[in-house]
Specification:
By secondary structure, the chain is mostly beta strands. It contains one helix and ten strands, in the order αββββββββββ.
Length: 193
């Protein structure tokens, strides 16, 4: 009696083309893996004046992310195109714009990131972006911060600014694009923290 053995046909190309990212649970991904990326662009130009002495959000400059693991790190990139300096004949050396990135959860502004201080602290990412320029200075500013929010709730990272004196923050004035991007990165112990 003979026994016939057959093997299933396996096409190597089909195996290569499998999208394993859809089949591997995030809990089993290696530490340092990017679990998800969220991007938001702002193309509207505008100007803002926050000379009231309080920090205010820059309209449209935010990114929302819902972490998949409670112990993940969130890396935030902020690319902001704006004009600093003399605007509407404002040229005093005492007029500045300062910027921060805040974390907002449940409509509660919690922390700002450049030094990781609690809200109201003195830390600023950009402590002097105006110094008596006669025509103003067009520039692109890039900021990167890393947060460890310890949650799987939706988080908003928002760019905030404050103007001292009568200085005005003017952004996307040459049809440019500003953006914020959030990356969830798996960290050691992300499943339990």
């Amino acid at each position: 009696m003979s026994v016939k053995v057959t093997k299933p046909t396996v096409r190597l190309q089909d195996k290569i083309n499998l999208n394993y990212a859809d089949t591997i649970p995030v809990e089993r991904m290696p530490v340092g893996s990017i679990i998800q990326t969220v991007h938001n662009t702002m193309v509207t130009s505008g100007s803002s004046n926050s000379s009231t002495g309080s920090w205010s959000p820059v309209a449209g400059m935010y990114v929302d992310i819902t972490p998949r693991l409670p112990g993940s790190r969130i890396m935030i990139h902020c690319m902001f195109n704006s004009i600093y300096g003399n605007y509407s004949n404002v040229g005093s050396a005492s007029n500045y714009n300062h910027l921060r990135i805040y974390r907002v959860m449940n409509s509660d502004t919690q922390l700002h990131y450049c030094t990781g201080q609690a809200s109201g602290g003195g830390g600023r990412m950009d402590a002097e972006i105006q110094r008596q320029h006669n025509q103003g200075e067009h520039s692109s500013r890039f900021y990167q911060v890393i947060d460890q929010p310890h949650t799987t709730m939706k988080i908003r990272y928002q760019l905030y600014y404050i103007s001292t004196g009568t200085h005005i923050l003017f952004h996307n004035d040459t049809n440019s694009t500003s953006s914020m991007t959030a990356y969830e990165i798996k960290y050691a112990g992300a499943e339990t923290q």
